[in-house]
Structure formats: structure tokens, C-alpha cells
Amino acid sequence: xKRKILLAWAVTFPISLSAALPAHASCGAAFCTLNTHWETxxxxxxxGLRVDLRYEYLKQDQLLxxxxxxxPEGVPDTHDExxxxxxxxxxxxxxxxxxxxxxxxxxxxxxxxxxxxxxDTPPETETWKFDEMxxxxxxxRYQFSPDADNHAAWGVTAGLKLPTGEFDKTNAEGVPAERSxxxxxxxxxxxxxxxxxxxxxxxxxxxxxxxxxxxxxxxNARNDFRPGNIxxxxxxxxxxxxxxxxxxxxxxxxxxxxxxxxxxxxAESGGSFVWLSPGLSYAATHRVRAYGFVQLxxxxxxxxxxxxxxxxxxxxxxxxx
Length: 321
Hints:
mainly beta, Porin, globular
């Protein structure tokens, strides 16, 4: 009986497709570290198209020096970061060819506002605002045949982050934004990942656990800037609470290397982060699902002094055809 419950839940659980983007402290650019690669978390094998639309909000207004909170120092002839609002919208298109092969395209739209103070006499506030296309991602995946006895599967992903976002935006005074603040990095990045997932029971209710490791490796530099490599590790569980409601809990870890190049700020970039991400999803129909997460920092260590966020939120809806 338990086996039938697990198999039925696996087949009816709709899978979303939006790709998790890197999140790291910096003067400006930030994304949630959520893993919403649902194809890495489930055993969805039906061929066809899935569409996902996701919005996320992240406000960076706390300066960290290493692991400790700090305040702007006001050193003459330098600038102090004050805050950055990130409101990001993602559209994901995912197509499964069969139970093994699939691919996805993610198109981000970045709404960002950044403020810092240049410590002149008197101090001068500088602001950057833009609504721009970010860097698109194209990812392919291969899932090996599931283990029918253990209801487990594993697979690999590979793809590219493309330089579709602008990296030379300026403010109203014509001052270029720092490269880490720009909508795009200007680089082509290689993306690699490996994942596993399996079904289980919590009491008499079905649940699914997953694990994924991924690497983002910039293949080139652009205009004297090369972003740091990113290494991610995600683990989580999805638990059926009621017939249409599912509880979700993730642990998201990330290490980002320092940026490099004359246009970079190596001393003020990169770090290590761990986030706890509880969430809920609701199956409105067999094909349509809404979901939401809140992301809370458990551990943050930055190089130098950087802006960080005390929380982040993400809302999305996904459907398959």
C-alpha cells in the first residue's frame, strides 16, 4: 500500500523549472539561492513543455565585515555602500523529450536600485536604478533510469550562462555602476551539476528528498572583469501536508571566489553562505501549481566589507502542457 501511495504522489506532483541563480553579498547584484530545479527533485518523466514564472525580492541593507555587522566608516575619498533593492522576475521554459533527456531556458528581468555615499566634503549620495534583461541560461540534463525498488533517481546537468545582460550601465550623472552591480557580467559561464532524489514516508504521508551540487565557472573575462567561480550545494525535502498543499524545506549553501581583473574589487567580493529556506506550494489543478519561499541566513562570511540581506522571499507559478 505504501508503495502505491508513493508512486501516485510522484506521478501527480507537478514540477516547476526555474533555475536557481547565484546569490552572494556584494555592493549590488544578488539573487535567491533557492533550488527550484524541480526536475532535479522529482521523477517527472512525461515529455512536453513546462512554463514557470517567478518573482523574488531581496533587500541588502546590512554591512558585514567578515562575519560581523559593521557600519559605514566615512573614510575621506572612499565610498560606503548603503543599500540595494533587488526585484527580479524570471521566466523559465523547460522541455522534456523523454524520461532521460530535457533542457531549459531561463530569462531574467532585473529591477535594481543601489545607493552609496561618496565621502567628499560634503558627502555626496549616488544612486543607480535600472530595469534590464539579465544573463540568460541554457541548461541541458540527463536523468538515468530510476531505481524502481527505491523510487530514487540521479542525473547530471550542463549548460551556459550567456552574456545577454548589459554591463556598462550608468546613473543619471553618467557614472558607470560597479561591475558587480550591473545586470550582466559580460562573460560566458560554464554550468555543471549532479543531483539525486528519492521518495520516502514521513509517518504515513509521502515526501521527497533531494540533493544537488553545482559549479559555475566563467570561461572568459570581459572588459577587465572576471567574476569568481561559484560552488553550490542544496538539500531539501517536500512533504505532502494535505491533498493540495505541500510543505518544503531547503538548506542552501554557496561558496563564491573573489572577482578578478582591473575592473573588479577582489578585496570586496566573494564569501561563504548558508541559507534555510522554508516554503509552501499549492496544486490549484493537476497542471498548475503556485509556490512561495522565505530564505533566512544561517551563516554569512564575506571578504572585506559587503552588503548582505537579512531575508529574501520568492513567489512563483508553474504549469505544464
